[in-house]
Amino acid sequence: MLYYICNDKLPCQLVGNEVFVLPKKQKGGKILKEKVLKLLKDNKSQFISGQEISHQLNVSRTAIWKYINALKEESYEIESVSRKGHKLISTPDILNYEEISEYLTTQYVGREIYYFDSIDSTNIKAKDLAYNNEADGTVVIAEEQNQGRGRLGRNWSSPKKMGIWMSIILKPQIEPQDAVKVTQVAAAAVWKAIAQMGIKTQIKWPNDIVLNGKKICGILTEMSGELNRLNYLVVGIGINTNTNKEDFPEEIRNMATSIKAETSKEMERKKLLASVLNNFEALYDQLINHSSIEEALIICKENSALIGKNVRLIIKGEVKEVEAMDINEDGELIVKDKEGNTSKVISGEVSVRGLYGYA
Fold first, then answer.
1. What is the reported pTM?
2. Cis peptide before 11 (omega within 30 of 0)
3. Beta bridge partners of residue 211, listed in sequence order
């Protein structure tokens, strides 16, 4: 048996016969609520008495009522009957830790989650948390963004409960110039997660996932650092999962779409979100531990929407027609102009548009 000394630096809590060391800033009530919910889920087809829950978790029945009511306020449908107990009827379509955790296989990415019903921008919140020393792998998730942004300052439509809007805080020990590789890792992770749901998409370098030639996902990687030192990265990921066609602003309907709009398939958002985090950590660890993005690059190349095609590069308003040739090991796009000259395009300094549509 492991024993822990509980103090301000190592907070912990006894729940039943188990000692849980609490993550930073996480209060005991949160883990108790998760345990109550787990018991309800484990007994979903039957009632479980308040006395039994109280006994298993070694807390008062008054406390159990508190957590049951808190779950009801979060839209969990729970039937409570005197002398019978409580039975979970249904769970809400929300992306909090309680709903995502059962699908997570990660060690650290997504093990601390800040969940918001509505927020200005998950990236803004994540940068604030990172600046204030929030842990590596912390994820900010919102059901809705009011000021969602994409690359180059573009707005990102983030309607409530129709997509996945999240940001991952990372603190890698890599050179600032290698930060561009993380975007390729994220793109590969999203592609792989959607593929595991049975849907084949393409990756439009450097940061978009497209389906039937239209954008369903954008990735925004932002960095804080100095000339030779990286402080933190925030990787924002927005996936249009269940947005209806008519819910997109008219001015972007020819460029943007959702998985549901293209496949008529309603996505289970919590499973997809957890899969993105699982795949991201596995690919990201290859970069951190082995200085390699080989697997991510293979995914990005084999499923590229651009390689082998003529595209338009838009650099500071100047348009140039080139052929997309390859993506190198640094995550840069290799292009060839009409004169046969090849050059590298660095992520973040250009916009790439297909000659006949978005991709």
1. 0.84
2. no
3. 214
Task: Report the SS3 class of residue 345.
Answer: strand
pLDDT of residue 231: 93
- How many other CB atoms are found less than 10 A from the CB of residue 325? 15
> Would you say 86 and 52 are in contact if contact means Cβ atoms under 8 Å apart?
no
CA atoms within 13 A on the CB side of 73: 8
Q: Which tens digit of pLDDT belongs to each residue from 348-359? A: 666 777 766 666
Give the chain's count of helices (H) and strands (E). 9, 16
The answer to whether 137 and 110 have CB atoms below 8 angstroms apart is yes
**Residues contacting 300, CB < 8 A, separation 6+:** 184, 187, 188, 191, 203, 205, 327
Q: Enter the DSSP assignment of 133.
A: T
Total Cβ atoms within 10 A of residue 261? 23
Give the C-alpha separation, 125 to 141, whole Å. Answer: 10
For residue 117 the two structure tokens come to 């019903």
Domains of the chain in start order, with CATH, are: 12-90 (1.10.10.10), 97-288 (3.30.930.10)
Dmax (CA) of the chain? 83
Alpha-carbon span 159 to 8, nearest angstrom? 40
C-alpha closest to that of 239 among 184, 140, 161, 301 = 161
Task: Give the number of C-alpha atoms closer than 13 A to the C-alpha of residue 145, restricted to the C-beta side.
Answer: 26
Residue bearing tokens 């060690």: 107
pLDDT at 116 over 50: yes
As a whole number of angstroms, the distance between CA 235 and CA 195 comes to 21
The 3 state secondary structure assigned to 286-319 is HHHHHCCCHHHHHHHHHCECCCCCEEEEEECCEE
Asked if 204 contacts 306 with a C-beta cutoff of 8 angstroms, the reply is yes
| Bridge partners of residue 20, in order along the sequence | 13
Q: Could you tell me if residue 163 is left (phi over 0), alpha (psi between -120 and 50 degrees) or otherwise beta? A: beta
